Amino acid sequence: DELSRSSHSNPGKSLVNGIKANPASNSPKSNLPVPMGPPVYVDLAYIPNHCSGKNTDLEFFKRVRASYYVVSGNDAANGEPSRAVLDALLEGKSQWGENLQVTLIPTHDTEVTREWYQQTHEKQQELNIMVLASSSTVVMQDESFPACKIEF
């Protein structure tokens, strides 16, 4: 088929989300236009790349409208979770035009999420965003770690 022929005849070109990416670009987030379309509504969305700003931006939150977003980043050295991504959630949700309840589920207690929560708490309330905190712990042999339980 044409897709396989183009990838064999042009080995320097790659696909990002099914779209040809610019081989000169090192970032999957290139200057390609985002295809227009209606927003997608889902129950649960995992914020890509451990909530890193490398792949997630305002457009993600404008297009992917979830009741629950999972934030799993726990690597401050790599900007995970990213404050810019958390701010993009607020900005994206403010453009939805409907005040649906959104729950943010951080899987780790990080300084970034704590500061963001405290500094934007009023905006979160205004936008009907709730941040889940968990006091649950999973114990496995000699190890224990915090956990969230999600019920629908």
Please state how the strands of the largest beta sheet are arranged side by side.
3-4-5-6
- Average pLDDT score: 78
Measured by DSSP, the beta-strand proportion falls in 25-35%
Helix content: 25-40%
Number of E strands: 8
Oligomeric state as shown: single chain
Q: For the report, how would you describe the main beta sheet?
A: 4 strands, parallel
Which segments are poorly predicted (pLDDT under 50) over 5 or more consecutive residues? 1-30
GO molecular function: actin binding; microtubule binding
Region (Disordered): 1-33
Organism: Semnornis frantzii
Biased composition (Polar residues): 1-12
Give the gist of this structure.
The protein has about 150 residues and is of the alpha/beta class.
What report would you give on this structure?
It is a single chain. The protein is an alpha/beta fold and 152 residues long. The chain has one domain. 30% of the residues lie in helices and 26% in strands. It is built from six helices and eight strands, in the order H-E-E-E-H-H-E-H-E-H-H-E-E-E. The strands form three sheets. Strands 3-4-5-6 form a four-stranded parallel sheet. The protein has a two-stranded antiparallel sheet with strand order 1-2. A two-stranded antiparallel ribbon has the order 7-8. It is globular. The model is unreliable at 1-30 (pLDDT under 50).
